[in-house]
Amino acid sequence: MTATALPTGVVPGTYEIDPSHSSAAFTVRHAGISKVRGTVAITSGTIAIGDSIEASTVTAELDARTVTTGDANRDGHLQSADFFTVEKFPTWTFTSTSVSGSSDEFVVTGDLTINGVTKSVELETEFTGAAVDAFGNERAAFEAKTEISRKEFDITWNAALEAGGVLVSDKVKIELDLSAIVKKD
């Protein structure tokens, strides 16, 4: 197997995800007709870029207590035992198990843990650029997306609709925008 070259402008090294310039967003169907969008804070993470795409790894932590959808009542419900049980499981994690693909578009496969349940997911990932910022930090940026089944993470609360169907869809789309800075020794 031939190693895949790194994206142009990315140098091997350990990059720390910059929470203030990164985001994790989700979308779920509501009542089968509209979408509810929300975010959750990425609190920390590391992208270790090896000499090839395949030699790279990713880890990240998110704070479930920061789930925000723009509606305080809904946010409180999402943080309850009906959904995320944030009192017991305040942190979600992702740890990659493999990376494969081309130098600009690749798949990061890894273990996602939500609600104390760990499942393998595939993040379709795109390199969006590298630059030195105004403070002299070497940065690399990536976008990633996946779709999960909330039932697989023991998130099963729902309500039947009078016309048929349920209030909250099982499928949840997740989109990440990551900016990471080369870790300085």
The stretches of 5 or more residues where confidence is low (pLDDT under 50) are none
Structural class: mainly beta
- Output the CATH topology: Lipocalin
Helix content: under 10%
| Tally of DSSP helical segments | 1
The biggest sheet amounts to: 9 strands, antiparallel
Kindly report how far apart the N and C termini lie.
33 Å
Please tell me how large the radius of gyration is: 18 Å
CATH architecture classification name? Beta Barrel
**Overall number of domains:** 1
Shape: elongated
What is the fourth-level CATH superfamily?
A: Lipid/polyisoprenoid-binding, YceI-like
| Element order: H for helix, E for strand | EEEEHEEEEE
Mean pLDDT: 93
CATH class: Mainly Beta
Q: What percentage of the residues does DSSP assign to strands (E)?
A: over 45%
Counting DSSP E segments of at least 2 residues, the number of strands comes to 9
Family: Belongs to the UPF0312 family.
Domain Lipid/polyisoprenoid-binding YceI-like: 14-181
Protein name: UPF0312 protein
InterPro entries: Lipid/polyisoprenoid-bd_YceI (IPR007372), TTHA0802/YceI-like_sf (IPR036761)
